């Protein structure tokens, strides 16, 4: 709750909390101090990824069939103007993020991810409910993956107003890919404000 979430948004799940359906926290994580400023749009958790120009992603064997969707999602983030965010696929045993299938995360949950951490690391796991999204369009399948990658680099849900605001990027944004609760129907490309927020947090 110190991160600004309400009781109704938080579900306990073993050693983790699931918030807003797809954001995962370990129970022992550190909590950032809120700066107390007005919270207006394009939200993040206060923890920026330090190696943001080289975030490595390992594709688990369970999800190799969705490699085209993963590549498309990565391309969206890598092509944000004036931002140093760069994801890349690696095959070795050292990586920042593991993306894998988990069809047990919920009957209406397309994916889940860890948020970035207090020590500057990207959220280290993305889970995709392949069974749930397999009949969605390609655009919507890659949207799910891109959305979850957004969480790993600190972004929270744009339409969830109890978070830390991205400075200078205000107002509502129905076109944001980071809106929550829009599995299978949300924006399939990063909006202008999504890109502004990414460039604001991770400038060149």
UniProtKB/TrEMBL annotation:
InterPro entries: MetalloPept_cat_dom_sf (IPR024079), Peptidase_M10/M27/M57 (IPR024653). SUPFAM superfamilies: Metalloproteases ('zincins'), catalytic domain. GO terms for molecular function: metallopeptidase activity. Gene3D superfamilies: Collagenase (Catalytic Domain) (3.40.390.10). This is Dual-action HEIGH metallo-peptidase. The lineage of its organism: Bacteria, Pseudomonadati, Bacteroidota, Sphingobacteriia, Sphingobacteriales.
């Amino acid at each position: 709750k110190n991160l600004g979430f309400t009781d109704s948004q938080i579900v306990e799940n073993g050693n983790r909390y699931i918030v807003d359906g797809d954001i995962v926290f370990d129970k022992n994580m550190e909590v950032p101090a809120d700066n107390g400023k007005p919270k207006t749009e394009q939200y993040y958790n206060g923890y920026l990824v330090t190696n943001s120009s080289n975030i490595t992603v390992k594709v688990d064997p369970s999800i190799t069939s969705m490699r085209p969707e993963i590549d498309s999602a990565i391309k969206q983030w890598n092509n944000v103007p004036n931002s140093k965010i760069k994801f890349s696929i690696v095959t070795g045993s050292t990586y920042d993020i593991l993306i894998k299938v988990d069809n047990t995360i919920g009957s209406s949950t397309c994916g889940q991810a860890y948020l970035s951490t207090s020590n500057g690391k990207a959220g280290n796991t993305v889970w995709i409910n392949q069974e749930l999204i397999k009949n969605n369009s390609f655009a919507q399948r890659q949207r799910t993956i891109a959305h979850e990658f957004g969480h790993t680099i600190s972004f929270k849900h744009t339409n969830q107003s109890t978070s830390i605001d991205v400075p200078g990027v205000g107002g509502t944004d129905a076109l944001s890919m980071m809106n929550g609760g829009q599995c299978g129907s949300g924006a399939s490309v990063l909006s202008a404000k999504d890109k502004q927020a990414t460039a604001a947090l991770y400038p060149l």
